[in-house]
Amino acid sequence: MSGLLVLLVALVATVLLALAWTRHNGRFTKTPTAASVAGDGATGAEGPVDRELLTPADIGADLGDRVTLVQFSSAFCSPCRATRTLLTDVVADHPEVAHVEVDAESHLDLVRRLDVRRTPTVLVLDADGVVVGRASGLPRREQVETVLEGLTAR
Description:
Blueprint: H1 2-24, E1 29-30, H2 34-38, H3 56-59, E2 67-73, H4 78-92, E3 97-103, H5 108-113, E4 121-126, E5 131-136, H6 141-152
Parallel strand pairs: 2-3
Antiparallel strand pairs: 1-5, 2-4, 4-5
């Protein structure tokens, strides 16, 4: 009887973890900026807020006019191929948006600097190259469209 109880608890725990993983996977989160933390654009409650800035030299391509989607991928990553297809398709409808794919294995210094822990990871850059959002895992089309609408409407 106790073996059945242990099995049931393990099954419930697995289902809960899978649901949490699915909910988090591919979801875009905003990166805190000085303006969003403090309101005055200068400092947060605990001092200045670092805003990660990427240049064309960092990513090996020009930035988009309004938004750049930087995708970190690896060679044998199946979700990376699906993400590439999705982002290429979405960007085709938005001429002011650029999509740049970066091979994570070849750019380990950048991966470490940006704390990329899995592939695919998509960083959202504003027109100045400031990282304003990120998603780990395969995002859904509507998530990408929502992020782009919010940034290109400015």
